[in-house]
């Protein structure tokens, strides 16, 4: 027993008396009151796969020399797997690092260091007690608390400072700030994490009819900030230093089976590095894929009239667990305009075309500052403190399924990934082709617009924003979305509703609703237990969240098993196993094979919904069901799907959109929301710098 934990031996018991001091998290610096809270937080937000550490940065020549000298460890079968000069053993895992785009450290002028393992130069020459622009730690912590954590209104902050002054002035002391204006001015002068917002306006420029509809004459305003500045701010964040990949890699377990974890462990990042490496000037650089995400959200609770369309940006080098924990790894870079019109014009082909063109043109304009850095590396300081030559590229796009239809110019009931005909979406495809930009352009050259629309689901008049950037194909970059495709789509909107429909068809309206009452009582009777979500009213409530669907998935099958046929039970069983497999943080070749097996069995047993009359027309009109077939490929291309899920952007809505909107005075709130986001980013960057 440590000396800091004294014993209480009264009545023969030995009770630990814990130190009353609060315990800090060494990764994100949150404070906890007991060891159990710290342990739970660490396991949830900072758990790392075994053996996955920051990759070494040796050159291919150094590795070859080590291999020739016998310094490189051999694999379990007596030989090093893969390309021996590039294979690195870490614990019980093997990492095959890309030999050319390996992120070699350099100095501030771009000259590679002779010793890659040398210590990085200091980030700053500031002294330990330098809290600029704040005068002390108390002043910084006060600003961070009242603005970021307590989210006080300006009136309440002024009132608090007045009370503080009234209690201190008689003793010759002053509060940390003279007024709320003093506090805001101090936060605005923080030199870290600054990315100013700008705006531009767009409007319809086509031919106007005699009486043009309002959407043709309206102006649409977009707010954005320089994405290159945002990326540089994230790269300079030392909080990512231990959870950041600097090179594409392939990871193998002791049996030499491939593992897929973060984005740079997939085949897509390696293939991109091969393409970039064709230019000799990029050798030794660090590939930095930029993950984009967008999703509309509603902020007003009662009316539902206030909608915003934010665009988020993240670094693909950051590990998935950091992105899911929202440790400043995702920034909002733009707010897109949402064109609206009267109902009589909603289905107008000109309006639909203008809406798509506006979306792609605005994204292209917002991301244009990144174009030059996608062709030629720039020297940047990375989270571990080293300078590196960084070359950027467009990475996966995170969006829900309905958003993908707009992004990829694919009509509804067509797959956004492959050109499978919408009449055949019920088939379990194997070895299918993948949509590409060249494929779409080739079809546009030989087919009319109507034929492209009807036979291939392509809108040839729309040019995706990704076409203006090198090595970017929007069809390839659309990754799977666990939340809207699998959890909410296939499970909650399909399987749960199909079971309900089967019970009504089998037993009639009266008996069927009585059975559903029994099922709801079973769901409500689930005992309180960690990891189980209570459903006190059963499944019959309107506002479903992703967490609700995940919670229902855990207890749904035991609640309905007595009321459905065995084949229906098996179909739900295999689909749930598929769901839990694809949600794992570490995917292996065995996992991918099991996922494929579960899909095959699910497709076999789901025919019960056809034979019982629930889906008499089959599943050809359900692209969400078809999308599950692409998850083995998504895993091999982009790593574990839970790092590229729209649940990340849905959660970010709270901090980036909804809370800033609630803090505004609701009169032209967007400008106030932008200011709140900018101050929040500055406070987070200042804390990371002060901690470093």
TrEMBL record:
InterPro entries: Plavaka (IPR041078), Znf_C2H2_type (IPR013087). Residues 23-50 form the C2H2-type domain. It comes from the Eukaryota. One of its GO terms (molecular function) is zinc ion binding. Residues 107-130 are annotated as: Disordered. Keywords: Metal-binding, Zinc, Zinc-finger. This is C2H2-type domain-containing protein. It comes from Hermanssonia centrifuga. The lineage of its organism: Eukaryota, Fungi, Dikarya, Basidiomycota, Agaricomycotina.
């Amino acid at each position: 027993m440590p000396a800091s934990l004294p014993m209480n031996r009264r009545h023969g018991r030995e009770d630990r008396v814990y130190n009353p001091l609060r315990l800090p998290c060494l990764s994100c610096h949150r404070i906890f009151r007991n060891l159990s809270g710290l342990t739970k937080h660490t396991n949830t937000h900072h758990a790392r796969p075994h053996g996955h550490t920051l990759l070494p940065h040796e050159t291919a020549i150094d590795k070859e020399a080590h291999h020739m000298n016998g310094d490189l460890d051999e694999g379990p079968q007596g030989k090093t797997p893969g390309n021996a000069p590039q294979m690195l053993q870490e614990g019980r895992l093997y990492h095959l690092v890309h030999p050319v785009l390996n992120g070699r450290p350099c100095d501030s002028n771009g000259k590679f260091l002779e010793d890659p393992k040398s210590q990085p130069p200091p980030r700053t020459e500031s002294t330990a007690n330098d809290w600029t622009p704040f005068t002390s730690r108390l002043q910084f912590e006060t600003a961070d608390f009242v603005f970021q954590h307590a989210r006080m209104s300006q009136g309440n902050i002024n009132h608090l400072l007045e009370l503080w002054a009234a209690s201190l002035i008689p003793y010759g002391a002053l509060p940390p700030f003279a007024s709320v204006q003093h506090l805001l001015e101090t936060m605005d002068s923080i030199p870290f994490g600054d990315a100013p917002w700008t705006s531009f306006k767009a409007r319809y420029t086509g031919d106007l009819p005699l009486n043009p509809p309002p959407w043709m004459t309206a102006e649409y305003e977009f707010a954005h900030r320089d994405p290159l500045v945002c990326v540089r701010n994230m790269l300079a964040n030392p909080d990512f230093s231990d959870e950041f990949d600097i090179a594409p890699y392939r990871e193998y377990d002791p049996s030499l089976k491939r593992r897929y974890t973060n984005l740079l462990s997939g085949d897509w990042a390696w293939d991109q590095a091969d393409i970039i490496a064709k230019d000799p000037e990029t050798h030794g650089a660090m590939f930095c894929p930029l993950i984009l995400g967008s999703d509309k959200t509603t902020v007003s609770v009662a009316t539902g009239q206030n909608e915003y369309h934010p665009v988020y940006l993240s670094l693909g080098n950051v590990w998935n667990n950091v992105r899911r924990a929202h440790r400043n790894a995702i920034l909002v870079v733009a707010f897109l305009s949402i064109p609206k019109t009267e109902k009589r014009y909603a289905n107008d082909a000109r309006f639909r075309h203008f809406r798509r063109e506006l979306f792609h043109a605005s994204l292209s304009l917002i991301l244009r500052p990144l174009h030059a850095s996608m062709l030629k590396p720039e020297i940047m300081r990375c989270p571990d403190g080293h300078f590196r030559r960084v070359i950027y590229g467009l990475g996966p796009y995170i969006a829900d399924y309905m958003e993908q239809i707009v992004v990829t110019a694919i009509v509804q009931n067509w797959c956004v990934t492959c050109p499978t005909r919408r009449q055949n979406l019920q088939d379990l495809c194997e070895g299918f082709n993948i949509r590409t930009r060249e494929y779409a352009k080739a079809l546009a050259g030989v087919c009319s617009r109507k034929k492209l629309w009807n036979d291939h689901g392509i809108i040839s008049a729309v040019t995706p924003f990704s076409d203006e950037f090198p090595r970017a194909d929007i069809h390839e970059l659309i990754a799977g979305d666990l939340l809207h495709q699998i959890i909410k789509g296939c499970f909650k909107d399909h399987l749960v509703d199909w079971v309900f429909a089967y019970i009504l068809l089998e037993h009639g309206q009266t008996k069927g609703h009585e059975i559903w009452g029994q099922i709801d009582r079973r769901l409500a009777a689930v005992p309180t237990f960690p990891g189980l979500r209570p459903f006190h009213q059963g499944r019959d409530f309107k506002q479903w969240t992703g967490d609700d669907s995940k919670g229902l998935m855990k207890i749904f099958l035991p609640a309905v098993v007595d009321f459905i046929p065995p084949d229906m039970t098996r179909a739900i069983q295999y689909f749930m196993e598929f769901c839990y497999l694809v949600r794992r943080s570490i995917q292996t070749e065995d996992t991918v094979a099991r996922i494929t097996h579960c899909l095959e069995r699910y497709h076999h047993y789901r025919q019960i919904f056809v034979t019982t009359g629930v889906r008499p027309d089959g599943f050809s009109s359900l692209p969400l069901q078809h999308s599950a077939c692409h998850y083995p490929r998504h895993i091999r291309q982009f790593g574990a799907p839970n790092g590229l899920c729209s649940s990340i952007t849905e959660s970010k809505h709270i901090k980036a959109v909804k809370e800033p909107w609630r803090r505004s005075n609701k009169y032209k709130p967007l400008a106030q929301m932008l200011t709140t986001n900018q101050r929040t980013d500055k406070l987070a960057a200042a804390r990371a710098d002060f901690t470093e």
